[in-house]
Amino acid sequence: MTDTNEKEITKSSKAKTSVKEEETWGEFFKTIFYAFLIAISFRTFVLQPFSIPSESMLKNLMVGDFLLVSKSTYGFTKHSLPFSLPLIPGRLFGSDVDRGDVVVFRLPRDPDIYYIKRIIGVAGDKIQTIKGELYLNGQKLPREKLDDYERVNEYGFEEKFERYKETMPNGKTYITFDKGYTPNMADDSDVFLVPEGHYFAMGDNRDNSMDSRWPKNVGVGYVPSDNIIGKAKWITLSFDNNSALWEFWKWFPEERLERFFSKIN
Predict the structure, then answer these.
(1) From CA 194, how far away is CA 185, in angstroms rounded?
(2) Is the pLDDT of residue 34 over 90?
């Protein structure tokens, strides 16, 4: 009788251990699933991280900057969702984009590509560049000449950019870069009339930005409202991509350290 009881107890203990292991693994996978769901929801509806791959917004945004973009500022469209799932008709909880805002949007000709630019014009606005200066509804935007920005580029050549503080009618100010006047369609444009439900976007580095000054088959064209993903709010980190991976002491030079956790103007 004793042997039988011991065997039954042993079997019972093994069964309990097996059930406990199954419960442990079940809880583990459930936790992982919930964490994944929370992360996706946060990225979709609250903040989404991006990095800067080009110099079209120099020096407000630099290659190697890592950003957080507010997804809730302007509301949500299908393009707010992963893979642009068609689950949201129009824009939900929408609000207008202000002139001067820096926004992330899906490229009209290829929604899989994200662009970041500054909104210059809203529906009904007339936009034109004359001799490299920006006109909004027939009025030249005030701009103040600042000290030139000089640097040694990644190829070892010295570069100089003219810097200007430009001011929107709503009082929004920001810094633009210019390499001087060139008689072309970027510095001397036609008059653009922004259609309803669209925006006109430009890069702050005016001579190095494919933006709304170019038609959408080669550039950006007008940006549909539904393509706006969110407002670029903060730089979290800024990494010097010209440094080799092993040159860790060069990753964050002085001009990059001051960008950490800074607000985007």
Answers:
(1) 17
(2) no
Q: In which element (H, E) is residue 6 found?
A: helix 2-45
Q: How many CB atoms lie within 10 A of CB 45?
A: 15
Helices (H), the chain: 2-45, 254-257
Nearest to 71 by CA among 228, 237, 260: 228
SS3 102: strand
Centroid of chain to Cα 92: 20
User: Any catalytic annotation for residue 71?
Assistant: no
Instruction: Give the other-Cβ count within 10 Å of 127's Cβ.
Output: 20
Residue tagged active-site, from 56, 80, 209, 238: 56
Distance, in Å, from the CA atom of 175 to the CA atom of 200, rounded to the nearest integer, reads 18
Please count the other Cβ atoms lying within 10 Å of the Cβ belonging to residue 57: 26
The answer to whether residue 56 is catalytic is yes
| Helix (H), strand (E) at residue 256 | helix 254-257
Task: Report whether pLDDT(22) > 50.
Answer: yes
Residue with the larger pLDDT of the pair 156 and 57: 57
Look at the block and give the residue holding tokens 């693994």: 25
Q: Report whether 57 contacts 51 (CB < 8 A).
A: no
Residue of 71, 80, 117, 212 marked catalytic: 117
Which 8-state DSSP code applies to residue 249? G
CA dist., res. 233 & res. 107, Å (int) = 20
The pTM assigned to this predicted structure is 0.81
* Total length of the chain: 265
- Measure the CA–CA gap between 46 and 40, rounded to whole angstroms: 10
Helices (H) and strands (E) in the chain, counts: 2, 15
